[in-house]
Amino acid sequence: MRSTKSKGASRALSRQPAVTQRAYRILMIAPTSFFADYGCHVRILEEARILQKLGHSVTIVTYHNGDSVPGLDIRRTLPIPWRRHYEVGSSRHKLIFDALLMAKASALLARGRFDVIHAHLHEGALLGLILGKLTRKPFVFDFQGSLTGEMLDHHFLRQHSPYFRPLLALEGWLDRHSSAVLTSSSHAQRLLVEGFGCRPEQVLSLPDCVNADTFRPASEFDQGALTALRAELGIPEGRRLVVYLGLLAEYQGIGLLLEAMAHIVRRHQEAHLLLMGFPNVEYYQGRAAELGIAEHVTFTGRVPYEHAPAYLALGDVAAAPKLSLTEGSGKILNYMATGLPTVAFDTPVAREYLATDGFYAELGDAKGLAEQLQAGLFPDERMRIVYRETGWRLRQRSIQRYDWETAGRFIVDVYRRLLGEAPEMAAAQRPTVTPMGGEPL
User: Fold this and answer.
1) Which of 108, 250, 326, 329 could form a disulfide with 146 if both were Cys (CB 3.0 to 4.6 A apart)?
2) Of 134, 138, 98, nearest to 117 (Cα)?
3) 14 vs 59: which has the higher pLDDT
C-alpha cells in the first residue's frame, strides 16, 4: 500500500487562493532540552522544519542540553555545572534554566531582526509575553498541556499545596494574555475557553501531525531489514508484539501497561512488549522483574526519531495508555500512520485522534487494557480482517487530516493576522469550539 499523502496534500493546498507572502523571521522559544526524541520535541521539530520548507527563517532558543538537528538554527543557553542531564517534565532547576533562556532570547532579539515570537509550553509563554511587550513583537503561544496539570501528573505539585492556586492563576493569566494560542487538540481548545476564560477567537486548534511518508506500514519496509532488527533487539521468534513509543513515566501509563502485560502473559507466553523510550528505564525494568515478565519485555531506551518508523513497523498492536487529560498524544498519530490497531485509555484526546477506529479501555484499568491488547495480539480469523481494515482506515485518517504542510500554512496565516498583513479569520473559517455537552461557541 503506497502512501497517497503527497497527492492528497497537494490537492488540499491547491484549493487555497494564491497569496504573495513575505518570508518571516521567527524566534521559537523552547524551554526544554531540545532535541530529545519525544512528544513536544517532535512538534517543535516538525513545526520548524515545515516553516523553513515554506520559505521562513526559524531560530530555536533552548536549554544547553539536547541534540543538534541538521538544518536547524539552534541557539543554546549557558550550562549549569550541577545539572548536566536532560530536563524532562517539572523541576526546580528549570527556574535557573528559564532565567538563562530569558537572557539568551533577549540577546538574540537585541541583535537580530525577528518578526514574530513563537513560544512553546507555559514557561516559554511567560518569556514570550514579556519579550513581546518589550520589543513590540507579536507573540504566539503553542499550548501543549496545562501547566498545573503537568505538575500534578509528575507529582511535582499537589492540589492541596499552597502553591497550587497561585500557579493556576498564573497559568490562566498567561493563557488569556497571549495574542494567539495554538492547541494540540480540540479538547485543549475547550479547556482554555471553558476552564481558563480565553476568548474563542483567540484559541485555535492545531493538532499534532505526522509525516505519513516516513511513518508507514510494515509492508512498505524491506522485510529482511525488519527481521534483522527483531533479531538485533533480541525478540524471540514467534512472539506477538505490543509496541509503545514515548516517555517512560507513570502519567504515561507505563506501570499500568506492564501490569496489563502480566495479565496477558499468564495466558499467552508468546506475547511480548517492545517498550521504547526514556527516562526511568532501570526503574521499569525492576517493575517488569517484580511482575515476572522480564523475559517478555524489551527495553530499547531512547530511540532516535529517524529510526522510530522501522521500530514501530515491528508491532502487531500499539499501546497508548496515557493518563493525562490535558496533554496531546502525538504518538497515536505515529501509530496511525504505521497502520497499527491502537489500544488507548478512553480520553478525549485519544477519541479525537482515533474516533471509532480506536480500541479503548476505561481510564486507569490495567485489566481492561490487557483485554483489548490481547484481542489485538491474538485475533480469530474474522477479527484479523477487522484489525487489518482498522489499521488501513487509521492510516488514511492520518494522511487526510494530520498533514504537516497544511498545518504549516495555518501557522503562517496566524502570523500574518497578528502582523496586520491579513484580515482576521472569518467566523466560518475558525475552528469550532464546542463546550462539553453544549452548543458550539
Assistant:
1) 326
2) 138
3) 59
What is the rounded distance in angstroms from the CA atom of residue 195 to the CA atom of residue 149? 12
Beta strands in 194-350 (DSSP E): 203-205, 240-245, 271-276, 297-301, 317-320, 342-345
- CB 189: neighbour CB atoms within 10 A? 26
**Per-residue pLDDT reduced to its tens digit, 124-150:** 999 999 999 999 999 999 998 776 666
Task: Tell how strand 240-245 and strand 271-276 pair up.
Answer: parallel
Q: pLDDT exceeding 70 applies to what percent of the chain?
A: 86
H helices of 54-191, in order, are: 94-111, 121-135, 147-153, 164-177, 186-190
Q: Comparing C-alpha atoms, which of 7, 434, 385, 437 is closest to residue 189? A: 434
Q: Which residues pair with 297 in a beta bridge?
A: 273
Length of the chain: 441
Question: Rounded to the nearest 10 degrees, how much is the dihedral formed by the CA atoms of 359, 363, 367, 369?
Answer: 30
How far from 225 is each of 22, 121, 230, 237, 241, CA to CA, in Å?
44, 38, 9, 15, 17
Q: Which tops the pLDDT comparison, 155 or 271?
A: 271
pTM metric for this prediction: 0.84
Q: Which residue has the cell 495508555?
A: 321
Q: If phi over 0 gives left and psi between -120 and 50 gives alpha, with beta otherwise, what is residue 420?
A: left
Cα(151)–Cα(121) distance, integer angstroms: 13
Residue that has been written with the C-alpha cell 502519567 in this structure: 251
Report d(CA 436, CA 433) in Å as an integer: 9
Torsion sign across C-alpha atoms 174, 181, 345, 258:
negative
161 vs 15, 78, 150, 167, 195, CA distance in Å?
A: 52, 32, 15, 10, 20
> CB–CB of 93/80 below 8 Å?
yes
Average pLDDT value for residue range 306-335: 94
Q: What letter would DSSP give residue 134? A: H
The answer to whether residue 92 scores a pLDDT higher than 70 is no
Model confidence band, residue 37 (pLDDT cutoffs 50, 70, 90): confident
